[in-house]
Amino acid sequence: MNPHLLPSTRREFLRRGTQGIGLLAFSRFAPQFLVQSTLAGAPAPERDRRILVLVQLAGGNDGLNTVIPFSDPAYFALRPTLALKKEATLPINDSLGLNPGCAALHALLNEGKLGIVQNVGYPNPNRSHFRSTEIWETGNESSDSVSTGWVGRYLDNACAGSPPASDPEAIHVSSEVPQTFGGTLPHNTFGLANRGGGRRDDAKLLQRLVARPADGSPAPADSPNNSFLRATMMDALVAEQKIQGILNAYKPETNYPGSDFAQSLRNVAALISAGLPTRVYFVSIGGFDTHANQLNNHQNLLRNLSEGLAAFQRDLTARKLDDQVLTTTFSEFGRRPNENDSRGTDHGTAAPLFVMGRSISAPLHGTAPELKIAKNADLTFTTDFRSVYATVLDQWLGSPADEILGAKHPRLSFLG
């Protein structure tokens, strides 16, 4: 984190707050010109609150080789080298199977702890990684451009008083603050590296921070800006030390794989187990932009995803926390139905996503895609991704989905 990006004016404070810097919890230290306009509140720290874990499959996951329609001849016609035969898949029903890399998730599916929402997308799809990710993270129409994310707007609507400075409302394990955390109000969020650890060079950054006013000139020790930034940074360091202590002391109830993704989920389990009031966690796993030589690479990616998610669910179950946590995956788009000349797939539209928790009502939700299409055509989605969000907001987080999403979307049945 660059110290020169920290806010020292009201306008910048509000702007940075919506981008996930998370300074609301430090508002009691702010100079007077900031205080009145930034007090906003956050969810109260109740131990039994429901928690959402979002898992991003960055790059665009190929849906047709994740949930394989092995009974459809069109699938094999579209994919002469990438198609997986029935006997190579993990059976879901008489017409669909999971990729063989998903053995650990297949076990959860059979236990009623995993569901698949089929053919998820949105109208007027965009094939740009950046833009389509933005659409998924904001929850808005593809024609709209907004700065707030759907989780940030959820936090805006779930305010109930300021939490302690060391207790974030949302935590991300990714290289940057996800746009989905951006709200109209400032929120206390926190970022971890893939394997945990602090975000800052603590002592050096604090030293550089304490005497830099907005115009870059030296400031007296009692400057309101200087005092605010010093107090802000001190509390941020307290938060970091608290979280690092939790991560260092945690002893999982299961063996996690050694991948960065699985270790990130191990750290999320540690923070949940510690009873933090954090409502939303965001974890990202990359590599899904499979333009070439997809078959084995994609299977390995799904194995990494599957084994990490299954270890996380086993850990929560052993600690009797699985009734508090719902995990959902998302990816910015699926891939084209037909394979390309490099034995890969190009940017497409719709794809399935996973929902995981203690009690998922059925293995399949929504309808499978229609594959009788022209070469190089895209899949037509049958479930809008905002129906997934609306279901999670209403039925899991207990929040007004229509207000948060700005429109009414059909609810799905994966939560019963």
List keywords for this structure.
12 strands, alpha/beta, nine-stranded mixed sheet
Let me know the number of strands.
12
By CATH, the topology is Alkaline Phosphatase, subunit A
- In the CATH hierarchy, what is the class? Alpha Beta
Output the number of helix runs: 12
**Biggest beta sheet summary:** 9 strands, mixed
Order of helices and strands: HHEEHEEHEHHEEHHHEHEEEEHH
CATH architecture group name = 3-Layer(aba) Sandwich
Radius of gyration: 22 Å
Distance from N terminus to C terminus (CA atoms, Å) equals: 42 Å
Inertia-based shape = globular
* Structure classification: alpha/beta
Average predicted confidence as pLDDT? 84
- The number of distinct structural domains comes to 1
Task: Give the low-pLDDT segments.
Answer: 1-45, 200-207
Proportion of beta-strand residues = 5-15%
Approximate helicity band: 25-40%
Write a brief structural summary.
The protein has 416 residues and is α/β, with parallel strands linked by helices.
Fold and architecture overview:
The chain is about 35% helix and about 10% strand. Helix 4 (about 105-110) crosses helix 10 (about 295-320) and helix 9 (about 260-275) packs parallel to helix 10 (about 295-320). The protein is α/β, with parallel strands linked by helices. The strands form two sheets. Strands 1, 5, 6, 7, 8, 9, 10, 11 and 12 form a nine-stranded mixed sheet that branches. The chain has a three-stranded antiparallel sheet with strand order 2-4-3, with no helix packed on it. The protein has a single domain (about 40-210, about 255-405), classed as Alkaline Phosphatase, subunit A (3-Layer(aba) Sandwich). The chain has helices at about 10-20, 30-40, 75-80, 105-110, 130-140, 150-155, 200-210, 225-250, 260-275, 295-320, 385-395, 400-405; strands at about 50-55, 65-70, 90, 95-100, 115-120, 170-175, 190, 280-285, 325-330, 350-355, 365, 385.
